[in-house]
Specification:
By secondary structure, the chain is mainly alpha-helical. The protein has 9 helices and no strands. It starts with a helix and ends with a helix.
């Protein structure tokens, strides 16, 4: 019996990284399963419009005769610089912008894609909280526990699927803190660039 316990402990120790990856994969899929139950946020449509206005601003500035600029102009949008929402940043969603020009996609599908993208950004924060705690305390159990606390906190769990403001900035702040601590511990160009980027 004792010999089996030793073998099991050795197996776990040798495959620790695989278990952690599996743990986060299961956690991610668990959250993904609940996205279908999350309704649209009251300001979701406004946020999408703000994203379109941001993109329109860039396109209009660099290439005013571009088809995309004409598309947004015909859509009835104004550039973000002259809109009352001009102080409202939405840069983490620039990658999502092409989805907003797909006219054949239903609003439900678009909303689901918006929630999945938001959830992915939130989950990035969960992963980097694990990495940050492990980096600071060299304790994988504590790091996993902190990641679980963040993920399963009821407010965070739901907001992590639909709140493109607070949860996203929290997640990106955690990523930034991780690379900041990493840069303090290991001062090199790679860590400086990643810290600056985040």
């Amino acid at each position: 019996m004792k010999e089996n316990q030793i073998k099991l402990n050795k197996f776990i120790k040798n495959n620790k990284k695989k278990f952690i990856v599996l743990f986060f994969a299961i956690l991610f899929l668990f959250g993904l399963f609940y996205i279908k139950d999350v309704g649209a946020n009251f300001d979701e449509q406004t946020e999408k419009t703000i994203l379109k206005m941001n993109i329109y601003e860039y396109v209009r500035h660099y290439s005013p005769d571009n088809d995309i600029a004409k598309y947004y102009q015909d859509y009835g949008l104004e550039p973000i610089s002259i809109n009352k929402e001009r102080d409202h940043g939405i840069a983490p969603y620039y990658i999502f912008a092409p989805f907003l020009t797909l006219n054949k996609v239903s609003e439900n599908v678009l909303s689901m894609a918006w929630h999945i993208y938001t959830y992915m950004l939130f989950f990035l924060g969960v992963i980097f909280l694990y990495l940050l705690v492990d980096l600071l305390f060299k304790n994988k159990k504590l790091a996993l526990l902190m990641a679980l606390f963040l993920f399963f906190s009821p407010r965070m769990f739901v907001d992590g699927m639909c709140n493109n403001k607070d949860c996203v900035i929290m997640s990106l702040s955690i990523v930034s803190m991780y690379f900041g601590v990493k840069f303090i511990k290991e001062k090199n160009i790679r860590n400086a660039l990643l810290f600056g980027l985040t």
